[in-house]
Specification:
Number of helices: 9
Distance between the termini: 66 Å
Strand content: 25-35%
Helix content: 10-25%
Structural class: alpha+beta
Oligomer: single chain
Radius of gyration: 24 Å
Length: 402
């Protein structure tokens, strides 16, 4: 049956089978020729809120071993079948032994709410043929006979298959792509993106699905960077969002990444021509479009905006008064809690914590990124996944770890 939306039944299992049959029909002869194993799903496919999209299966197991039944868990004496293809990798075991999942869990340790992703996710690949690294996949297909499609043709075809499955059958609310260049950018095909964390986390909207691209969890990065990535995801996923951009009457904004509500007042962080500004629901400009990044917070009953401009960060109030000048801090990250807020700040290469009056709560002596975690009404200061103290919000002091 031809893979078209009109041929789908609306039944998940039946539609998955239709999709799997077409994919196996395409991949099987290529796999025989290049002797590379192929499969799509790491975890068992299901309709779910979160989809984790990896690049391709790891390892270098040949198709001749997979299809001849020597990999007994696959049970493929005559090669891959659609019935087997639409199920999970039998070696996955919830990712317990997968380094990529272990590293992803470090990212998700930024906040307990991120555990929702682990318990409600489907993990699959955008490209189905295995390799130890992507360059190996390209090399292996480039050296094959001319009747086999080029590595890029096969790559694009697998992406097309994946898009059809994701948008028409699985229909997740949120997609997280492991790898920015080879997975995220290929999947979104030139769609306009927002940079949530410089060089590490990107976001766009495709077919009403939020798509994030993050640095590969197994990349050679320190754990504090992984936690920063997780914190960026937490701030974006678990903050209430404004309705679709089309609901703004003017249509002159590229993207609405954040909405902030305080009482009866609602403000929107908007992006226009690659710059951030702030508008209200009537599209009156509160903060002009001249900043690289803006996040809204409240302090002492008022809304404030933590903003980045060039290589410095500062704070602006809702009347466009500069509260913290853009001349001292290399980074500022806000943390709301009750009626007050604190700022994780980076200065001269070291991390500390300040309040909105620039009072130093935690001295600038830490080489590693600081972040907060709220547990049972307590606000803990964290470094590299470890609690180093508790913030006393009434006295605005750090209670050192006992």
């Amino acid at each position: 049956m031809k893979l078209e939306v009109s041929n789908l039944t609306g039944n998940f299992e039946k539609d998955l089978a239709i999709w799997g049959e077409e994919v196996v029909k395409y991949c099987h002869p290529i796999a025989k020729e290049i002797d590379k194993a192929f499969y799509a799903f790491q975890s068992e496919p299901k309709k779910t809120k979160y989809l984790i999209l990896g690049l391709n299966p790891g390892g270098s197991g040949p198709y001749s071993v997979e299809k001849n039944g020597q990999m007994k868990s696959w049970n493929l004496p005559n090669g891959m079948t659609s019935d087997v293809f639409i199920h999970q990798n039998p070696y996955y075991n919830n990712g317990e032994d997968y380094n990529i999942i272990k590293k992803f869990k470090i990212m998700l340790s930024a906040n307990d709410k991120l555990n929702e992703i682990l318990s409600n996710m489907l993990y699959m690949n955008i490209l189905y043929f295995n390799s130890t690294v992507f360059s190996e996949y390209k090399k292996d297909l480039n050296t094959q006979k001319s009747q086999i499609p080029s590595w890029n043709e096969v790559y694009k075809k697998c992406i097309d298959f994946s898009k059809f499955l994701i948008h028409n059958i699985i229909k997740p609310e949120i997609i997280i792509c492991f790898s920015i260049d080879n997975c995220f950018k290929q999947f979104i095909e030139g769609a306009k993106t927002e940079e949530l964390l410089k060089g590490r986390v990107y976001k766009t909207l495709i077919n009403n699905t939020i798509v994030y691209g993050i640095t590969h969890p197994s990349a050679h990065i320190p754990n504090e960077t992984r936690v920063m990535i997780g914190n960026s995801l937490y701030q974006d996923i678990f903050t209430e969002k404004f309705p679709p951009l089309q609901q703004l009457e003017s249509g002159k904004y590229d993207y609405i990444p954040e909405v902030y509500e305080k009482g009866e007042k609602t403000v929107l962080i908007a992006i226009k021509d690659d710059y951030c500004g702030v508008i209200d629901l009537e599209e009156n400009i509160i903060i002009p479009f001249e900043y690289d990044e803006i996040h809204a917070h409240q302090n002492a009953g008022k809304i404030f905006f933590v903003a980045g401009k060039g290589d410095k960060w500062g704070v602006i109030d809702e009347d466009e008064n500069i509260i913290i000048a853009f001349d001292e801090y290399d980074d500022l990250i806000g943390q709301d809690r009750g009626a007050t807020a604190l700022l994780v700040a980076k200065k001269d290469g070291l991390w500390g914590v300040i309040d909105f009056d620039r009072n130093v709560i935690v001295p600038f002596k830490h080489n590693n990124y600081l972040y907060f975690r709220e547990e049972n009404e307590n606000l803990f200061l964290m470094i590299k996944g470890e609690k180093v103290g508790r913030i006393d919000m009434e006295k605005k002091i750090l209670v050192e770890k006992e």
